[in-house]
Structure formats: C-alpha cells, structure tokens
Amino acid sequence: MIPRTAQKTLNAWRKFYPVIAITGPRQSGKTTLARHAFPQKPYVSLEDPDELEFANNDPRGFLARFPEGAVLDEVQRCPVLFSYLQATVDLAKRQGMFIMTGSQQLGLLSNITQTLAGRVGLVQLLPFSHKELKAKKGAFRSLDELLWKGLYPPIYDRKIPPASWYANYVATYIERDVRQLVNVKDLSTFQRFLRMCAARNGQLLNLASLGNDCGITHNTARSWLSVLEASYIVFLLRPYHKNFGKRLVKTAKIYFYDTGLAAWLAGIQNPDQLSIHPAKGALFESLIINEMLKERYNHGLPSNLFFWRDNLGTEIDALIEKGENLIAVEIKAGQTVTKDYFAALEKWSRYSGSPPESEYIVYGGRENYVRSAVNILSWKSLESLLKVVAV
Fold first, then answer.
1. Which position has the higher pLDDT, 316 or 391?
2. Most buried among 91, 175, 189, 286, using CB within 10 Å?
3. What Rg value do the Cα atoms of the chain yield, rounded?
4. What does DSSP say about strands 71-73 and 43-45: parallel, antiparallel, or unpaired?
C-alpha cells in the first residue's frame, strides 16, 4: 500500500471526535485507508444488501453489534442510521469510535450536518497526490504519462490499463451514482454531457452553452453538474473578487479532480498524443490545482483556492488565501520559462500591491530558481508551495 498523507490527520482526529468521516470519489482508496488506519475495528459495507436491510429495518440492533465501534463503508446509503449513531456515541462518550466512508457528498455531508454536527472529524480523500505517488518507483516516466494515466489508485495498485479502467469507471460507478441522485432517462445524453464537461476542463463555466451543446435545458445542465460535483468528478474553482471593484469576472471555472479521467473523456489515447494536444495546458493546470487542493484536504482543511480574472482577460490561475494575504500562482505546461509567463503576475502586483516574493510560477520543466523575485518551481518539486497552501 502506498502511504497516504491523510492517515496522519485520521490519527489526530481519533483523539478528538467520536466519529471520523472519510469522503471522496469512488475508488480513491477510502476503504483501504480506513481499514489500514483502524485495523482493530470490524468492517461493514452498506453496499451489501443484507447489511443494508438490517441497518434500515433495525438500526439500533445493527449498531449494537459493534460496542467498540466499526468501520461503516458507504454509510450514505442508510440515512436512518445517522440519528442512531448520534445517540450511540453520545451515550458512549468515547473518541474515535466509528469510522464512516462515503462517495457522495450530498448524502454523507448533509446527514452529518443535520445529525452529527460537532461530533465528526472530516477528511476528503482524493486520488493519489503526486507527492504520495513518488513512493512508488516507476509509476510514470514523464509528465505526459502522468497526466494521461491520472492518479486513481487501482491503475497503480493493480496495473490496469488506463483506457480500460476509465471506461468501466464511467459505465459503472459514475452512472450508478447518477441513477441514485437524479432521474436521467437517457444515459447516452448524460455521457455526452460528461464529455462536454471534459472538453471545458479549466475553462469558465457557461451552463447555457453546455446545455445547448448537449441538447438539454439550462436547469438540467445545472442539475447534472451538481451530480458530478457530489460524486467528486468535477469541482468549481471560484473567482476572487473581494475589494477589487466590479471589473472582474465572477463566473467559476470547471475542473476535473483527475486528469486521467478528463483525458480519457477527451479521447486522448496515449501520452504521445497528449504531448501535442491542445488540452495539455488545461490538464497540467488541473493537476497542479488538484495538488494544492489535496494538500488541504489531506490535512482536514477546506479549500482556500481561488482564481482571478479581469474583464480584459488577464488571469491568475490560482490565488491562495492566507488570512489577509494572497499568494498568486501561475501554471504553465511549457518546459522553458519565458517573459510572457510574468505578464499576468506583473499586472496582479500592480493591482493588489502584493510583492513578487509572494508569487509563484509552476511549469513543466525540471529546475527550481528565483527570477525577478518570483519563485519558479518545477512540477516535480512543489514542497515549498504546498507548505504555503496547508499552513
């Protein structure tokens, strides 16, 4: 098993909370991590029809089997259980008692908010980070291969060909979640919607245009997008516009949580094809933003990431909010840093008053150095940036 950074957070949470929740996309390693971090606890999957029926029909009797707690997998499938969990942990008054996992934000987080508020330590577990994957030698040979393969654990643990794995992932897990969360009469239309979202990875979200391209209404596009968000397939990066006047874009950008899935949906068949593909820049941007997001989530922290764009099209790919301070990050897939890479940062400095020392350029090359007081970082060496993100 490749060690997961989030285990340190789980070890801390078990001292402070009676319930620990691990949520994230299907196949991101939630169950493996929970069972590895809490090997002494019984494991129950609520995807097992017998266990689900027991929990639904007799939740008190179901929980009575586990006086010392348990790992409850895909717990969002049994909403009635949450109220009984609250009563059980309040009576026991012990920390680290139950470990819950779930792959749908809507089901798990809404029930936590309603019945277990203040009793749950939450960790959002995404697929491997690049930092975690470094522990597995030979996992990938180049940036293009990493972008194409993505970072889902089964591709590395079981060495499944990425194209085969993503095809089955879409056909099983994603479509099953779709059926559970929203009534989709035509799955082929939803698949087209998913591919259109992949084509817009890293772009400003335009629901009207997205709906028109798929032959669905604006409201349907919004509903389906919420399903993809709830299933940890895509996320929306919000624009930062506090204290900067009205001449700023206030539309969110859409990103996929995993570059491999986005590349497969975009029809990219191998790393060589990706090297000259117009989507490479957006996929690289997605990779780096996800690395920063994973660092936050692995430490049990919410996102502090935004982007900035003015009405003339000048854009900063990522802003890290640190109290009153903002750290600007430009992300460029090229292997050579050129003067053009600094243009948006220079305008941002004039606009915000931020010093160049608080600015970064992450690029597709190999070296780390400082140029014009800006920190230049290779995609392979993000440690200094990730410390800024998480602290």
1. 316
2. 286
3. 22
4. parallel
